[in-house]
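Quick note —
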Amino acid sequence: MTSGIDRISWDINHASGYLLCFDVPFGPVDPGCHADHYDGIADVLRRRLSRHEQGKGAKLTAYARRAGLGWTLTLIWENIDRTEERRLKANCGMAWCPRCRTEKVMAKRDPAYGQAIAAAKAWRFKPGLRQGVPVDVQVMMILEFHLH
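Predicted structure written out below.
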């Protein structure tokens, strides 16, 4: 188990569910093996999101934070329990994500937009290494597209 990661009770009722959409999918390059989203449940949402930002909320968000990746809170479900959270997790986060649904609609309307989004999402982060060990680095990725 990753040290410092919070474990929250399974007995949560009437909590807030939430969906985080990662700025860049990460993980293995193989299709279907990378993470686009994280959804969770919290009795005090602000505190839970703060823990994610600190890299101590969940293993997946801790890995993303260590890799220097960000995310956007795209959806909040009020008054759900663990059963409902599991139902939401069983579905792909992209099915619920307003940001991803918008990108999908725009890609259908304009194929060039879809190609630009696909090219951006194909990029994979590789951490900077010093003597074979990942180190903290800042990365700025500029993608310039000309849609005609």
